[in-house]
Amino acid sequence: MRCAVRIVLGGICAGMLLQPLAKGGRDSDYWTPENMAKRQCTSVHLVYLPELPEHTAAYQETLIEKSAPGTYFSCNNFSNGYIGVQELGQKDEQGRPIRVAIFSIWDAKDTGDNPHAAPEEERAKLVACGRDVRTERFGGEGTGGKSMRRFDWKEGQVIRTLVVERNESEDFRRIAGYIHNPETGKWELMSCWRVQAVRQGLGGSCGFVEDFIRNVESKTNERRATFGPIFRWDGSAWHQATQFRFTRDANPNDNINCHINLQRGYFSLATGGNIAPEADFPPFSVKEIRPSPTTPEPGEDVMDIIRDEHAEQRYTSESR
Fold first, then answer.
1. DSSP states along 25-94
2. Is 0.85 topped by the overall pTM?
3. pLDDT tens sequence across 102-153
4. Is residue 317 classed as helix, strand or coil in its secondary structure?
5. For position 24, what pLDDT does the model report?
6. d(Cα 42, Cα 40) in Å, to the nearest integer?
7. What's residue 27's pLDDT?
8. Is residue 49 within 8 Å of 243, Cβ to Cβ?
9. What is the C-alpha separation between 18 and 14, in angstroms, rounded?
10. Most buried one in 26, 83, 96, 319, CB count within 10 A?
């Protein structure tokens, strides 16, 4: 999200930019390919296939291989939002990079980029949030509600995330995001939002790697992560993503690649720095689709959350 935020993270209070404010509207010169190429890395994505639009839960694993200030590793970008981890552009009092988890939900209807423009009844409304999680509305690329917490993930670590949708009524549904904490060995709630039910299911999904500082220097830094396994729940069974499509944004910088991570068997996305465009032979080309291996389904700890109609309240109370 291209929006400013002031948050408290683990005792640190600072004015932070998750992403720089847009220099104009969605169609401004700021977003022309030639201007993007001057200041930022190309955003790269893996679309999870086959599509399963009406799935009501999604489980993802993402191995963070290499990070840099101003990086967003989106583990799952779905129709109404996304969940993942970021490295901000600041350091804490001990000189460590500030790293966070983020979960955002868009309003059900697009009313532009002004967070106050959406009618009150059409806004995503906070139902619950986890321990040390800060929430607020956002604008800049559509509007909605975002949640963030300090989460000291490390390179070489697998990030596990879970998104769950539940029907609340004919007109509303709840969408909750969870992240697994490797230090506690437990799932922890990020936040849960109530949104209008203009559609059912989480829709299409993908993972991506993005440079959101976009300050010219940022494009010289490599960013890399491996995505998978990916599972979607349809209410009665898990369906694994068995194919991935490699895509990119309009930025013409070609120091990107997508190749198989032999240790995990899934595909690694990379952008920025001195990355060579062809890491595989034959190379995984943009818009190409490749198969991925099948693995065991998520464990009972994930199913416990999906089965629990009041999981967001229970996980909130347990974490406080």
1. STTSGGGSHHHHHHHSPPPEEEEEES--TT-SEEEEEEEEEE--TTEEEEEEEETTEEEEEEEEEEE-TT
2. yes
3. 999 999 888 888 998 889 989 999 999 999 999 999 998 899 999 999 999 9
4. helix
5. 54
6. 7
7. 67
8. yes
9. 12
10. 83
